[in-house]
Specification:
The chain is α+β, with helices and mostly antiparallel strands. 44% of the residues lie in helices and 15% in strands. The strands form 4 sheets. It has a 4-stranded mixed sheet, with no helix packed on it. A 4-stranded antiparallel sheet has the order 6-7-3-8, sandwiched between helices. Strands 9-10-11 form a 3-stranded antiparallel sheet. It comes from Limnospira platensis NIES-46.
């Protein structure tokens, strides 16, 4: 880090003149050293390198840049009312950024969108606290990525929902299984035992004091302050990492339990699959009794953390047999269906199977998506056609891309049919006295190979995209386990598990 001091003075002059590639390279090298030291168990080196990163000018630059430019909550204000900073303010924030033992409360806000069936509440922190948490995350993440279990996928670099779904698909290739589909209450909220979490972190005193200050900072609802007795309020940048740290070890304890089970068919860790994405959990096994036992073990495991399983979403089902066969996970429905010998799949050894595993968009996800499209169309009743097309395209692109890795063609065609009917009603309300031919000529065009494209012609040609235009491409799970900044260049790249 010899070049750190020489670059510091030039980087203070103007935010736009910073060479971000060099800054990212410095932090990459530090994170790589932290990851490797944690992997080999050299925690003295881990603490030294973490302190070096927390003092690093490059680390502070990246933390401030991420909070003020890249983070999705960059334009939200905390209790201090500051929404954004000028480039001079950003440079000053970099200079002032340091760890202490104080933190300002989180401003609580209501969100219009829902999580599950209940309205969610979120919190906004001050820019200074968000930048501090971003800096701490740069230091803590490589240490814990060296420890995290391989089947934990939520809020981790280089991992996604599709990795979790593909992991489930791989475990269901050879035989039907029983499944525990569960969700942990307020795992990302304010229920986690903060003292137990700090003990598990086991970090050096200065960082421990700062994290404790964030955990105990309280929440401002209007002008009233509510103290935080447990956990941390929603909205913290470091919060998903802390939640993963708190739940780390659950999978290994379940696998040890499987090894120790006796009195049944031989059970070992290779037959039990534990897949977790943030607070959502799936456990697969061929024996239903083992699944029921896992449910009890998880409940006991969560009690010291002040957490529990949500009663309503938590259910035990079979992937093939039964009226309620299959389960929903991360917006996908996973189920196995019996088929004849000419449609059967094959297992790893090439043996024919009497079933096929199908992964589709869940009914709830399809319904919510269509209802969102309907709300957008109703809200644009008096808007120009081009404005409606742009808004719908943004929604359709994201949704169809998310589900393009599974069996979605039939669902995509059905959504296109329903959307066409809704748009017909939209144009008829705008022109109640016009003929059908006049309306069709005005709003539907022939573009490329499409004869009925909801489009606008003129100096700017814009057409509504169809869900079915998105090609189906099977997602390939990333290779192995590791941390992108840990030097494992194959991590996060496509390939076989």
């Amino acid at each position: 880090m010899k070049s750190e001091t020489s670059v510091k003075t030039t980087e203070r002059l103007e935010w736009g003149g910073i060479n971000w590639k060099k800054v990212e390279r410095r932090i990459f090298r530090l994170q790589k050293r932290i990851y490797k030291a944690s992997k080999r168990g050299d925690f003295k080196a881990v603490r030294y390198l973490q302190k070096l990163l927390l003092k690093s000018w490059s680390g502070k630059l990246l933390a401030v840049r991420w909070v003020t430019q890249a983070h999705e909550g960059k334009n939200t204000a905390g209790v201090d009312g500051v929404k954004s900073l000028s480039w001079k303010g950003e440079i000053n924030l970099v200079g002032d950024l340091k760890l202490g033992s104080k933190a300002k409360p989180t401003r609580r806000v209501d969100l219009t969108e829902t999580v599950g069936d209940a309205p969610s509440r979120n919190g906004d922190q001050t820019i200074f606290d968000r930048a501090g948490q971003g800096l701490v995350r740069l230091a803590l993440e490589p240490e814990w990525e060296a420890k995290f279990e391989s089947n934990c996928y939520g809020f981790r670099p280089g991992r996604s929902c599709h990795d979790a779904i593909e992991a489930i698909s791989n475990h269901l290739e050879s035989e039907p299984k029983w499944v525990l589909d569960a969700q942990i209450t307020k795992c990302l909220g304010d229920r986690i035992n903060s003292d137990r979490l700090l003990d598990k972190l086991g970090t050096f005193p200065r960082l421990r004091r700062q994290i404790r200050a964030w955990l105990k900072s309280g929440v401002m609802d209007g002008k009233q302050l509510f103290p935080t007795k447990e956990g941390t309020s929603q909205g913290g940048i470091i919060q998903p990492l802390l939640a993963n740290i708190a739940l780390h070890g659950m999978e290994e304890d379940l696998l040890k339990m499987a090894d120790q089970l006796s009195g049944r068919k031989p059970v070992n860790r290779n037959e039990l699959s534990v897949i977790r994405y943030a607070d959502k959990l799936v456990i697969l096994h061929e024996d239903g009794a083992v699944i029921h036992h896992c449910q009890q073990v998880i409940r006991e495991w969560l009690k010291p953390w002040g957490l529990e399983l949500k009663p309503e979403p938590t259910r035990i089902a079979h992937t093939l047999d039964g009226e309620d066969a299959g389960f929903d996970f991360l917006g996908f429905h996973i189920q196995q269906y019996r088929v004849g010998k000419y449609h059967s799949g094959k297992d790893i050894k090439g043996n024919s199977l009497s079933f096929k595993t199908m992964i589709k968009p869940s009914r709830k996800a399809v319904k919510e998506h269509y209802e969102r499209l309907v709300r957008v169309i109703d809200a644009h009743q008096a808007a120009p056609q081009a404005a409606l097309i742009r808004r719908l395209n943004r929604i359709i692109i994201r949704w169809s891309h998310y589900y393009s890795t599974v069996v979605s063609k039939e669902v995509f065609n059905e959504l296109d049919y329903l959307l066409f009917g809704k748009l017909r009603r939209w144009v008829n309300r705008r022109h109640p006295n016009q003929t059908g031919k006049w309306v069709a000529d005005k709003y539907w065009q022939s573009i490329d190979n499409r004869n009925w494209a909801f489009a606008v012609r003129g100096h700017e040609e814009i057409a509504l995209l169809k869900h079915s235009q998105k090609p189906m491409v099977r997602y390939v799970k990333g290779k192995g386990a590791g941390f992108p900044n840990g030097g494992n260049l194959s991590y996060g790249s496509i390939g076989n598990c």
